[in-house]
Structures are given as C-alpha cells and as structure tokens.
Amino acid sequence: MEYTTVTDTVAAGRELDDLAPVYEAVFAEPPYLEGPRDVAEFLERYQREHKTPGFRLVLARDGGELAGFTYGLSLASTTGWWSGFLDTDLPEDFTLEDGRRTFVVMELAVLADRRGQGVGRALHAALLDGVAAERVTLTVLPEAPAAAWYERMGYQLVGLTQPWPGAPVYRSMIKPLQP
Ligand SMILES: CC(C)(COP(=O)(O)OP(=O)(O)OC[C@H]1O[C@@H](n2cnc3c(N)ncnc32)[C@H](O)[C@@H]1OP(=O)(O)O)[C@@H](O)C(=O)NCCC(=O)NCCS
C-alpha cells in the first residue's frame, strides 16, 4: 500500500474524481445509508474544504487503485464547532480557537474489502504526522463501528452534539497531540 499526503490546493482538488466513488461505496453502508444526494453534498463540501487553511488529504493506493482516504483541516477562530452540545457546557478556555489550536478529521474511509489490514491506522497516522495543532477532534455517529475504532486510536468523548436542529446526534471526540 502506498500512502500519499496532499496539501497543495490544486492537487487536492484534482483528487476529487478518485475520492467520490470510494466515499459513495463506504457511506452507502449502514449506519450511514447515504445516497446520491449525500454524495452530492460531499462533493460540494469537499470543494469548499480543500481550500481552507491547514487542509491535508492522505490517499492509500494499491497498484493505482484507491483503497481509502482521509482528510482534515484546522478549526478557524470563528468556528461553530464547539456549539450545539446537548449534554455538556464546555468552558470558554476549552472552546477558544485561534486557527491553529485544533485539527479536525473531516472524513476517513477505507473500502470494506481493505479493512482490518492496518490501512485506517496508517491513514490516520499520516494525516496527523507533522500537524502542529495542540489537539485533534472529530464527530462520529455513536452507532457506527468507527466510534469504537476512534477510541482505540486514543480519542475521548467530549459530549453529544447536534450541529443544527434536525441533524443527527454525533459523538464529539478529542485527542491531545504531542508538541
Ligand atoms: C474506521 C475505518 C476507517 C477503520 O479502517 P481499517 O483499515 O479497518 O482499520 P485498521 O485495520 O487500521 O484498524 C486498526 C485497529 O483497530 C481495530 N479495529 C478495527 N475495527 C474496529 C472497530 N470497529 N472497533 C474497534 N477497533 C477496531 C483493528 O483490530 C486494529 O487493531 P490493531 O492495530 O491494534 O491490531 C473503517 O472501518 C471504515 O472505513 N469504516 C467506514 C467508514 C467510517 O465509519 N468512517 C469514519 C467516519 S467518521
């Protein structure tokens, strides 16, 4: 398996055609059950996100075939990331962002027939390799097997969050990064 990290905006934009079918296949599975509308939203989101500060994409390729990918970015100082918590009041010194403090894992996906071989772990490690942030965060559906996977990767629960009214309830997780 070959792992490639992409931080250049133009190069990251070019990868979208390869990412889309992997995203579509992985998130069609339960509990996500995503369809064409969700894939279209992913495409639209990626087109914005790959231009934001701190963006990093890591691809896992085997003989040219994409087996998985992950990407993330830095939380902006104006972020609403720490709003919408249902079960906890987060102190201001925890939620304060300056554009560099926190890195977010936005997506992580490994094709079903490539799982259990260390690809997810290697993607995740490559994504964070060289990130200068103090901590890394993400949200995951509590019912997804990935929730336990992230715990295994050292993440701890912050609380339950609903990003907007009517949105699913996510588990918000965090992990300190070594300076
Ligand atoms: C989560 C995901 C990326 C993991 O990828 P993977 O390549 O199977 O993971 P790895 O093989 O690197 O697993 C690493 C470790 O986690 C363990 N593990 C695997 N699945 C696990 C699970 N559901 N719960 C807990 N641990 C798990 C493995 O046994 C392995 O342990 P080890 O390194 O100590 O031997 C993959 O399952 C996936 O794409 N899931 C669907 C998409 C998804 O839910 N993404 C997250 C959205 S927020």
Report on this structure:
This protein is 30% helix and 28% strand. With 179 residues, the protein is of the alpha+beta class. Strands 1-2-3-4-5-7-6 form a seven-stranded mixed β-sheet, sandwiched between helices. Helix 2 packs across helix 3 (36-49). The chain is globular. Bound molecules: coenzyme A. Residues 26, 108-110, 115-121, 140, 144-146, 148-149, 152 line the site of coenzyme A. Coenzyme A binds next to strand 4, helix 5 and helix 6.
The Cα radius of gyration reads 16 Å
Tally the helices: what do you get? Answer: 6
Work out the strand percent: 25-35%
Task: Write out the CATH superfamily name.
Answer: Gcn5-related N-acetyltransferase (GNAT)
Features:
single chain; Aminopeptidase; 7-stranded mixed beta sheet; 179 residues; 7 strands; 28% strand; globular; binds coenzyme A; alpha+beta
Quickly describe the structure.
Helix 5 links the parallel strand 4 and strand 5. A seven-stranded mixed beta sheet has the order 1-2-3-4-5-7-6, with helices on both faces. The protein is of the alpha+beta class and 179 residues long.
